[in-house]
Specification:
It is a single chain. 34% of the residues lie in helices and 19% in strands. It has 238 residues and is an alpha+beta fold. The strands form two sheets. It has a five-stranded mixed β-sheet. Strand 1 (4-16) and strand 2 form a beta hairpin. Helix 7 (190-197) packs across helix 9. The chain is elongated. The N and C termini lie far apart (68 Å). The model has no long low-confidence stretch (mean pLDDT 95).
């Protein structure tokens, strides 16, 4: 068939602590068609070749972030990365690095979500709320536009060396979320959030490696947000 790309070899990380404390790689040969994503292939493997393979997926629309994994050495979303965009006929798939393993491609993201919760990811209002929506100038919305689009897939934090060696570090995703509210013209919790991120395990732990920017599947720029937070933290201290 004209739309067939041919056979691809998928080398997939496997780990089941209930059966074997040691990890391994299993290989699967999959006939790939034009337009198939990594997630399509994983579901084909699970459905036809090995039903024990474990991975997360949900929306299939690059919105929920649940299918983030390390594909050929780069963090990405399995549901939107097409096989045809990758070089070679062998594709190596690993779980997101930096997080504790649960099973196969599934990692424990509890610490990640605790860091997100720590920066108060909600709108803080102390003034009386208006009868209708809180209005915002377009320029104010543009300032947080990129941060609003974060889907919390965890790819950026997973790619950060500081997070690997300092689990208490809030990480780029949580700091990007803090930026989203600190610079929101409608929010009134600015000083509280700045006090949270202005910490040795907050913005000052960042070493500007830029791994987070490269890993983000939505092409956001956590590093720029962290730089903005550092400036605001310095202003606050003065």
């Amino acid at each position: 068939m004209a739309d067939t790309l041919g056979l691809y070899t998928f080398k997939i990380f496997r780990y089941n602590p209930d059966k074997d404390p040691k990890s391994r790689y299993d290989t699967f040969a999959v006939e790939v068609r034009q337009g198939m994503t990594i997630l399509d292939c994983l579901q084909k493997i699970k459905g036809s070749l090995d039903g024990t393979l474990s991975f997360r997926r949900s929306c299939r629309s690059a919105i929920c972030g649940s299918c983030a994994m390390n594909i050929n050495g780069k963090n990405d979303l399995a549901c939107h990365l097409q096989v045809s965009r990758l070089r070679g006929r062998t594709i190596t798939i690993n779980p997101l690095p930096g997080y504790p393993l649960i099973k196969d491609l599934v990692v424990d993201m509890g610490e990640f979500y605790r860091h997100i919760a720590a920066v108060m990811p909600w709108l803080v209002r102390r003034s009386p709320c208006p009868d209708r929506e809180l209005l915002q100038f377009p320029a104010d919305r543009d300032r947080i536009d990129s941060a609003v689009n974060c889907i919390l897939c965890g790819s950026c934090t997973s790619s950060c060396p500081q997070f690997w060696f300092n689990p208490r570090y809030l990480g780029p995703a949580a700091l990007l979320k803090a930026y989203r509210f600190i610079f929101d013209s409608r929010d009134e919790g600015r000083d509280e959030r700045l006090a949270i991120v202005d910490d040795r395990y907050g913005v000052w732990r960042c070493r500007t490696v830029f791994n987070c920017d490269e890993a983000c599947p939505k092409k956001l720029h956590p590093n720029e947000a962290i730089a903005g937070l550092k400036i605001e933290a310095l202003k606050r201290s003065v």
